[in-house]
Write a structure and sequence with these properties.
Layout (H helix, E strand, L loop, with lengths): L1 E6 L2 E4 L4 E9 L5 E8 L6 E6 L6 E3 L7 E6 L4 E6 L8 E11 L12 E4 L3 E6 L1
Parallel strand pairs: 2-11
Antiparallel strand pairs: 1-3, 3-8, 4-5, 4-9, 5-6, 7-8, 9-10, 9-11
């Protein structure tokens, strides 16, 4: 079973930047797409961005397009989320997750149900 550990969260002013990391260990699967999700207080968990197993394809949610970039280092088994131009509405706990199936890419939008293993999350707070 894969273990995912997020880091890099914190408090930042609006307009600032943060870089989140997700380190995978254990039974890692370089053949699976990886995603970042977030959950704000009182709201449902939403998809932020997804990257394919080899990093050649990405998907971003509408609310973060042009501001957030997902990437992965397959040699380090680490997935990153570069967050720029942060807004107060980006405040949430950010989670990384691994797709349940190897070699999958998505004909439409990825769905949260496609993802199985989850990290414990890292808090991002953006002040106005």
């Amino acid at each position: 079973q894969v273990r995912l550990v997020e880091s890099g969260g914190g408090l930042v002013q609006a307009g600032g930047s943060l870089r989140l990391s997700c380190a995978a260990s254990g039974r890692t699967a370089s053949t699976n797409s990886m995603g970042w999700f977030r959950q704000a207080t009182g709201k449902e968990r939403e998809l932020v961005a997804v990257i394919s197993w080899n990093g050649d394809r990405t998907y971003s949610g509408d609310s973060v397009k042009g501001r957030f970039t997902i990437s992965r280092d397959t040699t380090e088994n680490t997935v990153y989320l570069q967050m720029n131009s942060l807004k107060p509405e980006d405040t949430a706990i950010y989670y990384c997750a691994q797709d349940r199936r190897a070699w999958r890419w998505y004909s439409g939008s990825p769905d949260i149900s496609d993802f199985g293993s989850w990290g414990q999350g890292t808090q991002v707070t953006v002040s106005s």
